[in-house]
Every structure is written in structure tokens, then in C-alpha cells.
Amino acid sequence: MRITPFRWIATGFRYLWNALDTGRRIILNLLLLLILISIVIGMFSGGPRKLEDKTALILDFKGALVEQHTGNARDALLAEAQGAGAKKSTQLRDILSVLDNAAKDPKISSAVLLLDDMGGSGLAMLREVGAALDRFKASGKTVIAWGSHFDQRQYFLASHANEIYLHPMGNVMITGFGGYRNYYRDALDKVGVTVNLLKVGTYKSFAEPYIANGPSPAASEAEAFLYNAMWKTYTDNVEQSRKLAAGSINAGIDQLPELMKAAGDDAAKMAINMKLVDGLKTRDELREHMYKFAPRDAHNKSFRQIGFDDYLALQKPKLFGDAVGVIVAEGEISEGKAPAGSIGGLSTSSLIRKAREDDSVKALVLRVNSPGGSAFGSELIRRELELTRKAGKPVVISMGNVAASGGYWISMSSDEVIADEATITGSIGVFAILPTAEKAIDKLGVHTAGTTTTWLAEPYNPLRPLNPKFAELVQSSINHIYSDFTGKAAAARKTTPEKIDEVAQGRVWTGTQAKERGLIDRTGSYNDAILTAAKRAKLSDYRISYVEPEMSRVDKLFELLGAQTAKILHDQFKVALVPTGIAPAAAQQIANDFSWLNEVNKGSNGYTALTHCLCTAP
């Protein structure tokens, strides 16, 4: 029989298809087998051991302290499977739950605060954790803090311990707030890029790096006022916790070279001399010291203890009954849908609507930690809160590290606004930024031209000079949005737009300063917001219900499997990284700045009206 080329191709394709199908089934079966093995291990591992008397709680916070984990359970699981290099974060609500329950737990006698792996956090969130540590101590229990070194954030928490110990080769780095930014005006001029900034707000300084070679006097004034107030809050808290003389932190920094010489150039000894720590101990010496508070445990060959994650797993929140709903609004604000750990106008509005329509949720707390973003996305969220109040459910705003610009906008429809003393808020202002590169392409000999029926057919082309008519149109829109912003703020704060304008103009304030200027109702904690919401809803017996996006079936499976599966998958999945090296921090910052500039006008309107601030928590 003669074999034609077509028959040969068909035969080859059939063999290839069968091979692919067989391979697919093998891979899926292996993956299913791994999942089944992990489930069996989880079923028979027994979970955390039963607590015994005089157990020490190990508070080993991992990664940044956040209001909400980013991504989903599947992302977190696969990240953990990649190994030690994967980033991890610790939720504030988990820390508060663990500390407040441990304070009432007769089995827990002490806590060990290990902060080497703790990453970034804003001062407002640190104050929340510090207050929880104080409540734990007030119950008659002891907190011991130890570190191989302490950075400024870590030391703030350590200062709330009864005793602080440092490794003999360690140091305490308390540096102050503030820093430097890159300014790109000359660099952009050299490459032929013009950045057109249209704004309302004398102090709205977010886009200054693209149009200037240094900060404006208004920006410098506002930042100094903000940072000095926050620094005073930091130093006052530490000095009170450590029973140090007022002003001793600043005095120590001023005299640092002399103090270092007096300590024989030994940073750890200098920390003792400054009374920042109580002693120097290695890890094994810390373990010996802990036997004073917890008996020996033959199981782990150390003192009797339970880890943070294991103790958190023991907490069993109420699932039924009247509830105070909590929605976390963390990150930059976009217009559409956004995953956990960020804010989408549509997705966050959907969560508010879900809470409003849930009969068991009697009041709502919006926990805000956001520097702002899209004005339109912010208004979508504010409107849903307004509808929730009209439906008869109290709304209380709890401001975290940052609730500024768009973060303030979404806070304007509420029964009460509560911020920490160190919250960064305000920044009531609007801007649009429109970069053009006509000079750059002219240098390359590239030209752009065409025919349109009206000038609006292509109002903004980044390869052509900004059309003055379009600039005028955008500025009018920005003016209107600012007027809307100040008008809504005035209605919310029961004052006039003129009074709001006096403290607006894009200027940022601490929570204390915002209270003095009538922008918030009072300073207080996250727990204060929960209690206030419950009181307004006339609830005495209630649960806290976190209203979050529905997980997919796959995510639910991954969350069920947890870290046990990650350990199994660790050897199965490896991340192949191109060996390009790690860019220096300065170069990375430049890349981030230009990436933001490139992304800012991706919408369909030709420009984006932004209510954003330069106010990352220090």
C-alpha cells in the first residue's frame, strides 16, 4: 500500500497526540497523588499539641505587617513552595487576635518576641501591636524581646517588652524619619520628554519629581511638619515604654560618635549604656533565661512553647449571630476589580454591597490603609458606603498607616472617622500628569502626522506636543473634581468648602493634626472602631466578620491543604531565574518611578484624574 505524505503526517500527528495525552494524564495523576498524600499527612499529623501550663508564646512575625495578605491562597502556597526566599507577611488582625486571646489564656504565662524576620510597617500599625503587647503585660504576663539586631521598626515593638536582650554582636539602629527622592527634570529634558502636570493643590507634590530638580518650598514645609510630628510620637512612645528621660533618643543620636567611642567601639555595649536594652545574650543564653518562665520540654528540647501560627490555628471565631462586618481597603485605588491586598472601585464596592445585604451584619467598619489613586474608583466606594448608611447600618472608618487623598475620599461617607495619632491622612487634592516625547522622537528623525475630523479625535498623543485646548479641558475637569472633593468633605465634616480648602490643597497631616483641623472625629485604635460600630448598632453580643472576596474552589483546596502541601511541593517546583543579578536599590527606585509614569494614563479617557499622595508610611 502506497503511503502518501498526508497519511504519514496524519499518522505522526496521531502518535504525537497520544503521547501528549498520556503525558497529561501522568502529570495530573502525580499531582493528585501528591495532594492525597498531603491530605493524609494533615489528617494524621494531629495539628498543634494540647497546651500545658506555663507555656511561652513565640511571637516570630514574618515579613511585612499588613492589613491583608496580597493575592490568594494558591499564590501564597506556591510562593511558600519556592522556599525560604519567598516573601511572607503577617496580618495585623492575626497579631491582635493572638495577643488578646493569649492574655486571657491561663495556659500562656509569657511571650518571646523574635523580630529578626519582621519587615516593614507603618508607625500607626506598630502602635496597634505595641498596645496589644501592653494589654498582654497588663494581664500579669511577661514579654521578653530578643534580636540579633533591631532596626527602628523592630525596636519600637521590642520597647514594649518587659526585658530586651541583644546578641553580643548586634546593634540597635534608630535613625529618624524622612529621606530623599530622585528628581528627573534635567534627565527628561536631555532625552526630550516633557511632563505636563495639571493639578489643584499647592501641596500636591506627588508628581514634582518629573517636573522639577528638587522639592518645592511648599512640599518641604509640609513634609517637615509631618515627619517631625511623627518622630515625636515615635520617640515619646519609646521613651515612655523604656522609662527613659524625655529627649534621650534625640540626644543619643546627636552624640552617637562619642557614645560609640566610650563603649570601646562596641555597638551592643553602647545599646546597654544608652539603656536601650537590658543585656546581651546569644540564642542559647536566651533559651536558658526562658527556663525562669517556662519549664523544660523534652519534646522540643527547649522551654515549653507554642509558635505564633500554631496558636493562631487554635482560635475558633464565632461563625453565627449578629456581626460587625470589617472590610479591608489596603493599597492603591484602581477603578475596576482588584485582588486582596489592593483596592478596586468595583471589587471593593461589591464587598460593601455584600455586607449591606447580609442581614447578620449590623454595622460596618472600613479599615483604610491607602495613599489613594483613581478619583473615580474612590467615588464608587464612597457611594456604596453612603447607601449602606441610608440602609440603616452604621459605618465607622478606621484609618491605618495611611488614609490620604483617595484614601480620605473613601472615608467621607461614615458615621465616625477614627485614626491613629500617627496615621498619615488628608492630602485633599487632584492632579493629572501627561508626559509627551515629541522632542525625543524628533532627535531620532521620527515624525507623526495625520488627518482628523475634529481636534478631539486624538486629543492626547504622547508623541506630539500637548494640545493647549486639551490641557485646558483637563484642567477644568481637575478643578471640578477638586470642588467635588472639598464639597463632599465639607458635607461629611459639617463645615464649608472654604474651611476644608484651608486645610486641603493636597497637604498631608498626622492623625493628631487632622483631629485638630476637623478632618477626623477622634484618634483611636482599630479596636476602638470595632467597639464604636457595635455600640452604634446597639450590639452587646456580636462577632467580627471579615467580608472578603469569595474564594474559588481551587483556592479553597489550597487553603485547606496549607503549609503541609507546600513542604511536599517544595522539591517538585523550582523557580528558574535568569542570572541577571539584582539591581542596586537606587537603580530599582528609578525604574519604579518611570514605570509608574508609563502606566498612569492607560485608561480610555486619554488621562486619569488622580487623588494620590506622596505619603508612604516612614
UniProtKB/TrEMBL annotation:
It comes from the Bacteria. Keywords: Hydrolase, Membrane, Protease, Serine protease, Transmembrane, Transmembrane helix. The chain crosses the membrane at residues 26-44. Its main location: membrane. It holds the Pfam family Peptidase_S49. Residues 136-291, 389-539 form the Peptidase S49 domain. InterPro entries: ClpP/crotonase-like_dom_sf, Pept_S49_pIV, Pept_S49_SppA, Peptidase_S49, S49_SppA_67K_type_N, S49_SppA_C. It is found in: Membrane. Belongs to the peptidase S49 family. This is Signal peptide peptidase SppA.
